[in-house]
Amino acid sequence: MAHAEDGARSDGGIDGDPIIVLGTRIVEPLADLPPEDVLDPDAVASYGAGTIGEVIDAIQDDYADAEPTILVDGRPIPDRGDIDGFPPEAIERVEILPQGSAVRVGGAPGERVYNVVLKPSVASVTATVSHRMATEGGFSDDDLEAVLTRVKGRDRLNLSLAFRDSSLLTESERDVDRTPVAGVDERPYRSLRPASRGIDMNATGSMRLLSWLDLQAAGRMNWARDDGLNGSAFAEPLTTRYRAQGGSLTTTLLATSGQWQGSAGLRVALRDTLFRFDNPETATATIGRFRSGSKSRDLGANVAINAPLVQLPAGLARLRTSLDVTQVRYDPRSTYANEYTRTDRNLALGLSLPVLAGPRFGRLTLDGDLGRNWLSGGERLERWSLAANWQVRPWIQFTASTGRAQMPVDPDLLTTRVYSIDNISVFDPVVDETVYATLIYGGNPELRTPRTTTRRFAVSAAPARKINLQLSTAFVQSTTHYQIGAVPPTGSSLIYAFPERFVRDASGRLITVDSRPVNFGAHKQETLQTSIAATIPLSGAKQGVAARPQLRLNASHSMALSDTITLQDGAPAVDLLEGGVIGVGGGRTRHTANGTIAVTKGTMGLQLDGYYTGVSLLSIGTVTERDRLRFGHKFTMNLRGFVGLGSIFETSDLAKKGRLSGVIANLTKARRLTSSQVGNVPEAYQLIYSDPIGRTVAVELRLAL
């Protein structure tokens, strides 16, 4: 991996000659921590990323980090989204600070800080166009994006406009086995994926007001539409249409003075959704047009302070506090539901205490956080957490944490208008058949507030700095009381636990399913997570990635040790690893894994990504006639290659900052095979449903001007 000199930066623009300036720009709480690694522009280019957000994601994979805190030019930002959309060509360097540094600037205990240093002067326009299509035909999508970027010192602005369009994919375009209804083949009238179209506009920027004060703002607007098919009735297709539009604006004042940091912000978000669907009216042989929608408005204000408290022998103790007030207004746009308004007042207090510091015992820090949320109506929610982070040596660290949190229920789940859609294909696990039924959707005002208790113990090590070898393992235990979930007819246990949600006719055929959300009992999980990452130079060259090809490797594995849930208080626990289910599809998969192998040289690279999902089970049938569906393992591979056009068209100014990329997703057309112990596989769990699109090929052209 290429490195830049510590404290060095370029004062040229994207194409300017570098001018070295001594000094490192970073807030004072981190000034005594030298970076573990510094990525220069060549190292950034080797990721083949299209945005700074993609660069950060790739660095997270390389360093096995879960929640790094992001700084820009050494200063905090309100939200990572405020820098994600900037082009990577604007980066002068990225400083990777040691584990445990994030807590000094209000981040999570045990995590790193990434300091993204931008070039002091940038003026660029970036255009990206891509096309993706399925090798089995029937599906394609197109994406267009234009980005305007300006950076001058601490002032920066990024404007983006993106358009996306995806085609409709019907069952007749795939090998779907569906029983005809009244002699009619409905496959041309049922969509596996709706036609989709969307537009996104984003503007983010920062302005220096004083040497210690910055104003940051972000505005976003989006429009989306989906059009699908839901079968045929009376020789006319049944359609579903979804429309959504929304926008948000946030402004934040960020102050940094010595060891003190503070922020004050305002935000507003508006959203308008409309869902239209057709239901057949059998009595009149006509099609009824129905609609459901909502308008929502979120208003918020917040203040936060991160301040030094007292100098201890092991270091500076720090205090952090914040107050956030939010008002949510929800209008279901219906005569059958009332307007809903809720005000949340959220107060948080945190303390970071350095206990040990020195070469003999390492560095030990204790962190504690308390929070209380007052909801309008009198409900009071509480949360707390404790964490210990012990860096025994610079290359090994232990982290232990525990906490409990109550989070307010999403207003959509409480107040969405109740509506029903007919002619939905569902699997009835009791009689082991696929039927057409009426599904009821909407909110549930009786939902209780979930409460989650989490315990985590982790070990991370970096024993070989030359190849950036990162090893980590973590044990996570969590218990959620009153977990919220829908009630689809996927498993027999759900139907027996909530019999009032499933209506049958006189013959026992399932005709109505009420899938509105409910509270379950206690959901208990234990998981073991491991990861490894390394970056291996493939030559002895020391300067610049262009002369230094490298091999990047990373892999992670998650094993569910246990996963049980009581569907209702007092009911026996259901084992989600042995056929129990609380969602759509099979039960919990015990093993999941993913990994990446990439070979890069300068602006050229080839990357292979792999994703593994293990076996899961689903118990179906009656108490006396049991069956079990087995959802087999699935291993998916994606191959991506990219090349900088400047290395091909050396004399072209237009191609100098261009890049051509190609991706083959699901290289082997992997799909998850379902089998039954005693009978045939239900129609609802056909092989094609596990991945309707299948293998796709995509080409992307990106030009930075």
From TrEMBL:
| Keyword vocabulary terms for this entry | Receptor
SUPFAM superfamilies associated with the record: Porins (SSF56935)
Name under which the protein is recorded: TonB-dependent receptor
